[in-house]
Amino acid sequence: MAGSNAQLLQERVKRRDYALRQLLAASRQRETLLKTILDTIDVGIVAVDSKGETLLVNNQQRAFLRLATPSEGSPDPAHHEQLVFGLDRQTPLPPEKSPVRRATRGETFSDYLVWFGSGAEQRAISTAARGMKNNIDDRFGGAVIVFRDVTDVVEALAAKDELVANVSHEFGSPLTSILGNLDLVLRNAEELSPGPRRFVEIAQRNAGRLRALVEDLLLSAAAVEVVHLRRTDLAGLIENSLVSAQAQANAANVGLVAEVAAPLWADADPLRLGQALDNLVSNAIKYSPGGGLVSVRAARNDSWVRLEVQDTGMGMTADEAARIFTRFFRTDAARQAAIPGVGLGLSITKSIVERHGGSITCFSRPGGGSTFVVALPAGAPPEYATAG
Fold first, then answer.
1. DSSP per residue, 191-252
2. Which pLDDT tens digit goes with each residue over 214-265?
3. What is the pTM of this model?
4. 122 neighbors 115 (Cβ within 8 angstroms)
5. Residue 326 sits in a domain of what CATH number?
6. Residue 76's CATH number
7. Same domain, yes or no, for 171 and 131?
8. Which end of the chain has the smaller Cβ count within 10 Å, N or C?
């Protein structure tokens, strides 16, 4: 009887051993398949744990890392800051702003552009990151960071913007001459009958609209240029923007209020970010034709500064809100209300915000106003920041 039980136990052990071997073989096959897939795609992938230790890196990412590593160094997926640069292609990216470090801190982002390498081999890399949850306690367990070569796209966009800037500049001189001469005609138009005078006024008005379009195109091209970041008190920028917009608000019977913690430090280009703020506040007033209230709120949230510009104006549909940052896009309600504009201000604003490493989103509903939310990296506290 004992021998029979021992034989039965042995058979069970053999079956369990066979099942475990089958599971191990299947696991290895899936691992091989995953590795083959990851090494086949032309996108770099890095997976890190909650401490930033590398769990996985594919062949394409190793190629990117070779670009980002000095010749005397060795590529390390988590520490490749030496030849990683910001948007100007020259300023080394601070270690705390590297894609892997940001992802290790639990940040989620997309379309974060950096430059790998130097000289003729330098490449524009668009990065994105998503966090992973720990199965045990549902806490942050690591992240996956994706790296994509977008050099051709960036260079094509730069060439297009240079063309727009050049063409717009060439339009500027003749338009100034046309408007100047039309103004002279109207100043000395006592002998003109009402009919011809009206035609001249129509020509002057449309030439003025064309010049405004050219100026917006020039601003649009300039907005994609390099921003010069330095420690900036956003509270002061917001105050200046509201003071500048007060006359426009008074004329439109719109109230202006601000809820901003002061000081509110961030790494920013005061000129460019001031331009973006002016666009948002001016738009909020302009699209509240029946009067109302424009509220500006800003506060620090962990490593980010959150800025909101909210109005009580005409609002827009969800589809329109999704397209509002597209160049030359204008809502049907804005056209029907004959609100002036060519649809470039918000496109320029989005470009400026993204050049700061931030993002901008819009929430709106018809008749219920709109809220524009800007998120900007706050950077280190001012006492630890170095002069830029």
1. TS-HHHHHHHHHHHHHHHHHHHHHHHHHHHHHTTSPP--EEEEHHHHHHHHHHHHHHHHHHT
2. 776 666 665 555 678 888 899 999 998 898 888 889 988 999 999 998 889 8
3. 0.51
4. yes
5. 3.30.565.10
6. 3.30.450.20
7. no
8. N
